[in-house]
Design brief:
Layout: E1 3-6, E2 9-12, H1 39-45, H2 50-58, E3 71-76, H3 78-83, H4 88-93, H5 96-104, E4 107-109, E5 124-127, E6 133-138, E7 143-145, E8 148-157, E9 160-165, H6 176-182, H7 187-195, H8 203-209, E10 213-218, H9 220-224, H10 239-248, E11 250-251, E12 265-267, E13 273-278, E14 283-287, E15 294-303, E16 306-311
Parallel strand pairs: 3-9, 10-16
Antiparallel strand pairs: 1-2, 3-4, 5-6, 6-7, 7-8, 8-9, 10-11, 12-13, 13-14, 14-15, 15-16
Helix pairs in contact: 2-5, 7-10
Length: 317
């Protein structure tokens, strides 16, 4: 068996025959022929693929995506790139290595994946061409990757498939502890972790190397509502209380927003149960049987060892 090889990427030619199965995809524009047009041609001549294609060219991957090797490309359209913080000006400022890393995290090598192939999957882990992972869940109506809903668009080329994204996929660079320490909106919570970290049973180590976890992270306003003016004020709180508060916020599994339907419950590291409310318009969480509810203000921030949600109230305060 022969392989086409570029640094960090190995693709089996044995997968080439799979493409013929999907040659009749009706979503293809007239300019793209599923039997003769390569992924590079489709990107260069597509509608709304200008930004992604420019990153492909800068990365030097246009010749690779124009070869017989098989790929599934998760392609954010131009609007998705701009809304995700990657307008053309950002791509223009990329170095070739940065562009390569950005594109390869949205590239699955060696096989054809379709929207239909994700039906019934729950957080299926895929190793992308850069070596990092994405997680996909799908049903007959919707497909999610890393917590974000994909577009129901699919284009077939002679050497693979392009699937439409509503958001740019960005590989996680930090673990949960690093996310806390660098996010200025979580400085109170970071201080709580530091103050409640005995040795050797360290919460900092747990958040750095443990997991995967889903972290319901209370933002700074949640602490201010309880009268704390600055993170240093938490030194007056019993460290065991702070530790219990952090463990109450950690679910020992990787969850995205679509994993949290209305009235779902999950056990935390403190052996407490969190109850989620999700009406579709807003989401909230509370400790089961507690009178206090916390609103989810942001969701699906991926860490190397889990997912972080921000909430506006301390749980069970």
């Amino acid at each position: 068996m022969k392989f086409f090889t570029i640094p960090g990427l190995r693709i089996s030619f044995a997968a080439f025959g799979i493409v013929a199965v999907f040659a009749c995809n009706k979503s293809n524009p007239p300019v793209v022929n599923a039997e003769t047009s390569t992924l590079t041609y489709a990107l260069a001549n597509g509608t709304g693929t200008t930004i992604f294609y420019s990153a492909v060219v800068k990365a030097g991957l246009d010749s690779v995506f124009g070869s017989p090797a098989i790929f599934t490309l998760f392609v954010p359209n131009d609007q998705a790139c701009a809304q995700s913080g990657y307008p053309q000006s950002v791509i223009n400022a990329f170095t070739p290595d940065q562009a390569r890393s950005w594109v390869l995290y949205q590239t699955y090598a060696g096989n054809v994946l379709t929207l239909q192939s994700f039906i019934g999957k729950t957080d299926e882990k895929l190793i992308m061409a850069d070596g990092d992972s994405v997680f996909i869940t799908g049903d007959s109506n919707r497909t999610y990757v890393n917590g974000y809903q994909m577009l129901n668009t699919q284009l077939t080329a002679s050497n693979g498939v392009m699937l439409g994204l509503q958001n740019v996929l960005v590989q996680p660079q930090q673990n949960l502890a690093q996310m806390l320490s660098t996010d200025t909106s979580l400085s109170f919570l970071n201080e709580a972790v530091l103050l409640s970290t005995p040795v050797p049973d360290s919460l900092s180590v747990l958040l750095s190397t443990g997991g995967p976890f889903t972290f319901m992270a209370a933002d700074n306003d949640a602490f201010r509502k309880l009268g704390f003016v600055s993170p240093s004020d938490l030194s007056s709180v019993n460290p065991d209380t702070l530790r219990s508060m952090v463990l109450l916020s950690l679910i020992p599994q990787r969850l995205f927003s679509y994993d949290l339907p209305d009235s779902s419950t999950f056990l935390t590291l403190s052996d407490s149960t969190l109850l989620f409310h999700n009406t579709g318009l807003e989401a909230s969480v509370q400790v089961l049987n507690s009178a206090f509810t916390s609103n989810v203000v942001s969701a699906n921030s991926m860490a190397t060892n889990g997912v972080l949600f921000k909430i506006d109230e301390l749980l069970d305060h």
